[in-house]
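Researcher: Sit down with what I've pasted below and flag anything odd:
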Amino acid sequence: MTGFEKRTLEDLPVERGARILARADFNVPLEDGRITDDARIRAALPAIIRLRERGAAVILASHLGRPDGPDPETSLAPVAKRLSELLGTDVALARGVVGAEVSAAAEALAPGEVLLLENTRWEPGEVANDPRLSEQLAGLAEAFVNDAFGAAHRAHASTAGVADHLPAVAGPLLEHEVRTLSAIVEAPDRPLVVVLGGAKVSDKVGLIERFLDTAEAILIGGAMCFPFFRAQGIATGDSLVEEEGIALAERALERAASGDCRLLLPVDLVLGREFSAATELRALDGVEVPEGWMGLDVGPRTTEAYAREIAGAGTVLWNGPMGAFELEPFASGTRAVAEAVAATSGTTVVGGGDSAAALAKFGLAEGVTHVSTGGGASLELLEGRTLAGVEALDDA
């Protein structure tokens, strides 16, 4: 496991009754005010429980969605309710993020009590990393714990700015994510196989370029494959093609041709007339997509080839589905990759919300080594970029 050069929760002295501000990632999916997936809340529990065990009064902060000011639909009230259930204690929800009423609520906390601030993005200074908001947040507590890996790439007031004013350490989730993902680049068990899917080459070009230098194989699926086909002069019919991705794909193909990493593309596809579960289907033994059809999944020969690569890997990184897995007729490719990842004996790391959702849908999440809680943060870390929320913490 690679080193972690920042102070952690275990390095932080916590006196009984000390108020600790903990940044978590409670950006959970909601449907009609109900949480449909509480994985991010559960991932935050170890830090909260550890702080309570040490007698701290815990003040939690998080964003939810992208509101432009206060918005009842993005209130953290459902999160407070779910946290209360999971912790077995009442988690009070503050009526705001900062201000006199919030400060009074924080000061009144007894050891072990938990207060959840309202959505940090209700404050206009959050995204702007306003120094005044950072100071107000810091004034609520005596120390800061950042355990929000999913927001660690954001230089916001509650993720980075507040660390300028308080002793600031990493929580266990943040530390584990950074260690695990850094190890894939710095010291993976070989061979390293990277599986990339989703819609846009531009979203993953940093990963492709990084792993062309470090991986044994990169397997491409999803709509990402179509810019690669277009770069080779192969017709893509009505398939979703990111036009700006064509030049990026061409560059990646050129680099792969002169390097040691094998860049694998689909050899067959499953087509549909339109993006619908009820559409007419066609199996294509090849990748030249006729007009009037769109590629919506990789075919069986591709999934067999990819499964063999995954089975022989020492380390697998998977980010992005192989097709429109949310539509059952086009879920086979993603399901096959998920099963192969879960079955392999090597280290398996899954990043990206769609990949994690696919694992959950197919009941395979328990079969992988690590499912990252961060989408953009995991991509940036794997690309070798510095995460603002980590950089702001105290050095070890």
User: Anything to note?
Assistant: Residues 153 and 387 are 4 Å apart (CA to CA). The domain at 9-172 is CATH 3.40.50.1260 (Rossmann fold). The two ends are 17 Å apart (CA to CA).
